[in-house]
Amino acid sequence: MGRYFIVGFCQIYNELEKGNLERFVKYIMPLVDALVVYDDGSTDGSYEYMSKVTPYIIRGVENNFADEINHKQLLLEEALKLSPDFILWLDADEVLSANAADELQNLCDYCISNDFDALSFHEINIWRSHSWKRTDSKYNNGWFVRLWRVSNDIHYIKAEPGLHQPPYPTTIQNIKRIKTIKVLHYGFASQKNLAYKYLIYKSHGQRGYYMLDRLISEEQLVLEKIPQELFPEGLWTDDEQPIPLAFEESLSYVERYRDAVFRPKFSIICMIYESIEWLQFVYEQVLKYTDMTDKEFFFVANDINGKILEYLQDNHIPHFIYNTPEQQVESFINNVYRAYNYACTKAQGDFLIFIHTDMGFSPGWFNSLWAAYNGSNCISSRLVEPGDTHSGLYGIEKDFGHNINSYQEQAFLSYVSAERCPQVENGGPLMPLLIRKTHFQMAGGYSEENNNILSPIIAQKCKPFIPADNILMHKLSLHGINHQTAFDSMVYYFQCGESDGKNVSTVSLID
Predict the structure, then answer these.
(1) Which residue ranges make up each domain of the chain?
(2) Alpha carbon distance 484, 381 (integer Å)
(3) Residue 255 to residues 17, 193, 199, 200: CA-CA distances in angstroms?
(4) Which of 20, 194, 280, 470 would disulfide-bridge 509, Cβ 3.0–4.6 Å?
(5) pLDDT digits (tens, 9 = 90+) for 10-33
């Protein structure tokens, strides 16, 4: 018997925050020769974590839980590039039983000797514990096709979006059940994981006992102790048998996790201080050209007047106030950066997107920023500007209006449609800026009073200073975070907005 080349195969989405990913990596990597992963738009750091584990990772831009079969086809195509003999499919909330390291190669040989297309393993569903499995309500009936023999024609037939479709390639027909290896499934091992599954399945239209409610219903609960010898080293914990919960109790713990499950993953933040007209404009623009499904938008109000506050409150527009008497006596520009830092502390998203009020947006502006993210960069949009001041790096000087009243929106959108291209370059504009929140915090956010790296000063009206945006980019670079511009995210920048003489001259730190 020769040694067979086995490639691991997995699809993930925000598995770090669910507590699954580190366990999965620890116990699958010794079993496989390579691991291919499809990341379905994770924002919690799962993509960055897996990028350090394997070079074979496909990053999806838009989370689409219901399109898992087409994602698996992409995974399969990536795996086949490595010329494997077998593919081992596991989810991130699963591990194989303790004997897998010794058994897998034997099972590969067994599969070939007996001309099987694949082998199926029994799944053990760990229930609200570390060592108890659930056996009622079909919880002990699961056999899943895990080890696939690679053939010349192995593939999926393109499937319609939807849940609970066969997860293995359509070409696999001759399958044998094997009892020597088990799959330990942790997806039901905690209230948190159960709540996540219940809420996500419900949001996709699942209904009824077997399609939804059995995920949390314990009226028929039957549990058995899992033998210790099945657990890989380090996973066994001898804990007490879970006490059955009434359905109302289960619904109660599910509701405790609702905000966490459906929290915004992205926070779009805009400064406002004196213009209702620009407030209305940018708010409408963001909502018009941005899918807000997993996003929040709010204003951070800095040195605002009473009319602005009244408008925000009367129209129920999300906002936070950053405006104290002590701040008002200092330079306007310092308080701008302090307000952005304050907004970061209020943001619920894993990513921050900083914008100005005097910006007009276009279809795909956000998606293109997100698509350009690679785990170690922050990304700006490409600016189109009327030319009142000289455009910076990658800027385009083309006049589509100098203010809201003269804005030629349709002409700008036509121009964007013709000019946008999937290109990413280093450097560029400083807003709109998409940045991971932890990266922003790691760099200390925007410099609030230190507007010169070597000689701390406070900016003064009409005096030169180094923008805190540039200082931020310098600090990020010291941490290995590269500032880049996405050429297919195009935004019109009016170069005026709410300015009324409060501007100060700027000195560029970055070429």
Answers:
(1) 6-259, 264-493
(2) 9
(3) 17, 13, 9, 12
(4) 470
(5) 999 999 999 999 999 999 999 999
Planar angle of CA 335, 337, 341, nearest 5 degrees: 110
Which of 247-251, 360-364, 449-453, 476-480 is predicted with the least confidence, judged by mean pLDDT?
Answer: 449-453
Residue indicated by tokens 């004196």: 274
Q: Which two tokens stand for residue 391?
A: 């455009």
CB 183 within 8 A of CB 94: yes
Q: Which fold has domain 264-493?
A: Spore Coat Polysaccharide Biosynthesis Protein SpsA; Chain A (3.90.550)
User: What CATH topology corresponds to 6-259?
Assistant: Spore Coat Polysaccharide Biosynthesis Protein SpsA; Chain A (3.90.550)
Let me know: does 124 contact 182? Beta carbons within 8 Å.
Answer: yes
Entry field: residues in the chain: 511
Q: Which two tokens stand for residue 169?
A: 């390639």
* Cα 144 from Cα 118, distance rounded (Å): 10
Q: Give residue 343's identity as a one-letter amino acid code.
A: A
Closest C-alpha to 286, from 361, 224, 363: 361
CA separation, residue 180 to residues 117, 121, 123, 442 (Å): 18, 8, 12, 47
Average pLDDT over residues 40-50: 96
Residues with Cβ < 8 Å from 84, sequence gap 6 or more?
5, 6, 7, 33, 34, 150
Q: Is the pLDDT of residue 355 over 50?
A: yes
The amino acid at residue 333 is I
- Give the Cα separation of 126 and 94 in Å (integer): 10
8 A C-beta contact, residue 302 and residue 323: yes
pLDDT tens digits along 284-303: 999 999 999 999 999 998 87
Are 6-259 and 264-493 the same fold in CATH? yes
pTM: 0.90
Q: Is 44 left (phi over 0), alpha (psi -120 to 50) or beta?
A: alpha
Q: What is the DSSP letter of 30?
A: G
Residue 383 CA from chain centroid, whole number: 25
Poorest-confidence range of 251-255, 418-422, 445-449, 484-488? 445-449
pLDDT at 510: 38
Mean pLDDT of the chain: 90
Beta strands in 362-505 (DSSP E): 377-385, 396-397, 424-426, 433-436, 482-493
Report the phi/psi class of residue 364: left, alpha or beta, with left for phi > 0 and alpha for psi in -120 to 50: left
pLDDT single digits (tens) 244-280? 999 999 999 999 999 999 999 999 999 998 889 999 9
Backbone angles phi, psi at 114, to 5 degrees: -105, 10
Spatial distance between the Cα atoms of 190 and 197, rounded to a whole number of angstroms? 11
**Tokens at 280, concatenated:** 């209305």
